[in-house]
Amino acid sequence: MTTTATVTAAPVVGFDQVSKVYGSVRAVDGLTLALHPGETVALLGPNGAGKSTTLDLLLGLKHADSGTVRVFGTSPREAIVAGRVGAMLQSGGLMDEVTVAELVGLGCALHPKAYKVTDVLARAGISQIADRKVNKLSGGQAQRVRFALATAGDSDLIVLDEPTTGMDVSARQAFWATMREQADQGRTVLFATHYLEEADAIADRVLVLHRGRLLADGTAAEIKAKAGARRVAFDLEGQVDEATLRGLPFLTSISVSNSGPAEGSVHTVRLQSSDADATVHALYGLGLYPRNLEVAGLGLEQAFVAITAAEEAKQS
Ligand SMILES: Nc1ncnc2c1ncn2[C@@H]1O[C@H](COP(=O)(O)OP(=O)(O)OP(=O)(O)O)[C@@H](O)[C@H]1O
Question: What does the pLDDT read at residue 263?
Fold first, then answer.
């Protein structure tokens, strides 16, 4: 992978024991992490986990109560003034009474390493609405304008807070194709999302935040493995005693649905187990004959739910 980022010893982003407190809420709690050049990193976490606060700290929009935030080895403000960071935040921030072209033109004018306005509009897929007033845009179009502002110049780090919320499927695909190009040119991309399939498909690295702390940090495959559980699915013919199935060892969840042509003829069982081999062994031990048996790892979404639920259980 080529890199346009200046090679320095400092990471692209460095958080060292960073905390941010609102009253009694520790939105970010002793967070330490480093992002490296060329990485595409997804920031995941349930509502209120501290994702937006983390991005605001990184962009210098909020200040840490303790710890240090460095961006390219400098303060966030210095990095932004130098044009090294492009950002797309969740909502607000678009001036109403200007056209799309005027607003993007302003974004370009403010960027020390700006691209041509027409190129920025084209890349974000908004050339055709360039003359439209910003307050007349649909939600998905407004997101594209925010994306255009985040890519108005040649930044080394692009920060995106829930960038595809409100975009339709094709807009979302086009958005990620553009983002991939940015990453392939060596830029570091950090995005917060609730769409776990996007994180799975796009990110080289996934950070899971929970109550302001880093709960997991690795590739999507590592996060899935960390959840430890596997999915098992099979069909059972004839009458099924659900209570017996619920007694299988190592289950973390189970659902039984009627899937045959006649009521009660075939049941499809889907379960999660922390030891799938032992669960399946016990199933045969009950004298049952599972058909169409499938054993698979967890998807990122299921792994995320399992990891955060386990942490909730530990803390309560
Ligand atoms: N300005 C504020 N004043 C008080 N509390 C705040 C403020 N901003 C955030 N919080 C609280 O800090 C915690 C973290 O919020 P944050 O918005 O960073 O989470 P998030 O992970 O981005 O959530 P979401 O997925 O819902 O966008 C939440 O409990 C939130 O209520």
Answer: 63
Quick one: what percent of the chain has pLDDT higher than 90? 56
| Residue among 51, 195, 214, 304 whose CB has most ligand 1 atoms within 8 A, to mutate | 51
Q: What tokens does 151 get?
A: 């890519």
The type of residue at 104 is: V
Neighbour-count burial of 177, counting CB atoms closer than 10 A to its CB (0-12 exposed, 13-18 middle, 19+ buried): exposed
- In the block, residue with structure tokens 């998807």: 299
Distance (angstroms) between ligand 1 centre and the Cα of 2 equals 36
pLDDT band at residue 17 under the 50/70/90 scheme: very high
Angle, CA 212 vertex, CA 208 and CA 214 arms, to 5°? 35
ipTM: 0.96
Pocket lining for ligand 1, CB < 6 angstroms = 22, 25, 27, 45, 47-53
Q: What is the pTM of this model?
A: 0.81
Alpha carbon distance 246, 13 (integer Å): 47
- The closest alpha carbon to 48, from 313, 312, 314, belongs to 312
Distance CA 305, CA 97 (A): 42
Q: How confident is the model at residue 260 (pLDDT cuts 50, 70, 90)?
A: low
Instruction: Give the Å distances, CA to CA, from 201 to 26, 46, 83, 204, 295.
Output: 31, 19, 28, 9, 22
Sign for the CA dihedral angle at 239, 243, 244, 247 comes to positive
List the single range of 3-17, 147-161, 194-208 with lowest mean pLDDT. 3-17
Q: Are 234 and 276 in contact (CB under 8 A)?
A: no
